[in-house]
Amino acid sequence: MASEQRSDAEQLAEFGYKQELHRTLGSFSSFAAGFSYISILTGMFQTSYLGFYFAGPAFIWAWLVVLFGQMMVALQFSELAAHYPLAGSVYQWSKQVAGKAWSWNTGWMYLCAQIVTVPAVALAWQVILPQISTRFQVFKCSPSASCPDPSFPLFNNPDFAKNAILLGIVMITLTTIINVMGVSVLSKINNVGVAAELVGASGLVILFLIHANRSPSDVLTNTANTANVPVNHAWGYLGALLVGAIMPLYVMYGFDSAGSLAEETDNPRKRAPRAIIQALATAGTMGFLLILFGTMAVSDKLFPTGLGAGGLALITKDVLGSFWGDVFLWDCALAIFVCCLAIHAMSVRILFAMARDNNLPAGDKLASVSGTRRVPVVPALLVGAIAIAILALNIANPYAVTIVLGLGIIYMYLAYLGVTIPLFQRRLEGWPGSLPTANQGLFRLGGWALVTNGIAILYGAAMVINLAWPRDYFYGTKWYQQYGPITGVALVVIVGLVLYYGYQKDKMEVLPEHRAGSTAEALAEITQPPIHGGP
Question: Does residue 530 belong to any structural domain of this protein?
Answer without folding.
Answer: no
